[in-house]
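User: Fold this; tokens only.

Assistant: Input:
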Amino acid sequence: MPSTVKTGVDLLEKEWPRELKNTRAGLLIHPASVNSMLLPTATRCMQSSKFTVSSLFGPQHGLWGETQDNMIEWQGFRDNKTGIPVYSLYGKTRKPRPEMLKDIDLMIIDLQDVGARFYTFIWTMALVMEACQEMGKAVVVLDRPNPICGRQVEGPVLRPEYASFVGLHRLPVRHGMTIGEIGLYLKDVYYSDLMYFVIPMKRWKRDMWFDQTGLPWVLPSPNMPTQETAAVYPGMCLLEGTNLSEGRGTTRPFEIFGAPFIDPDAMVRILNSHMLRGAVFRPLHFLPTFQKHAGKLCGGAQIHVTDKRQFRPFKTAAAILKTIFELYPTKFGWKKPPYEYEKKLLPIDILAGTNRFREDIEQGRSLDTMETWWEKELTVFDEKIRRRYLIY
């Protein structure tokens, strides 16, 4: 399979840091951890002459992506093929315990992010970095593309008082960075004593979307089936903080949304009045097979992205929530905690990274007014922080 972009795992042997030769490695991976020929990263690393793999670690949804929904924890086990231990980092343990790291010298991280702050894999990486700093272990990130390009940033910047497992440190919702670049930022600001390395990609450009890389798309999690899903996710994941279905239990999660009380045509008429760029809403009815409103007929819509460079997923989701809140004030509701291990703060607030987003909707502020304040936050973050850590 020809490929334009070479990811970190493709360049593993050639670019491996000299000071880390003949070491014992832990490997943090998931289903999308493959090279450009679809060879699993685990297999590739087992063949390396530079280091020995001593243990495997997996994030949310399991090492093999077997856990379908949010908040489904999984337990570690011993790998049948190799006999080495597999440790779960989604459950009671999200930060590796000292006994998990005692037999390794470094952790290799190869995770496909999707470009949104609330996708938890970057925060599993952060907790691994923290644990490795405390234990004197190195971290090597095998870099991968941001599938929704590395230029556009959007949405509020996380306020520290709203930190959670869907946002441990300051980032905007759509961050426009690769996982290796985020790691550089985290190391510099939060884990300064960590020995940190990135194996960069070759031939990746910041304005590339995933379908321009020549790389095969592999589901990084069960409800991220396509590149189109990733395009809408930085906005549509906000629906997890409501009583609306975000399309889980359908074949187009996050693109399809709705609830039993929604009149699709009435909703779409109002959404179209916002003149949102790069998207068309198609009214529909759907029947989720699991999660919210399972087995109940829902009215809603599907987002069809017509111009992904013009499309603004966060602003689009804000328009959806504002429209439904105003159309159905007695039926729409914000989801109550717990959510992703947060037991006090509202899920919508930790997803947005602030309570201001929710309060603006409740107080009927215009979409343009809302966008103005998060655009100001983005400008400051981009100029003072983000640009310092860009590799490409």
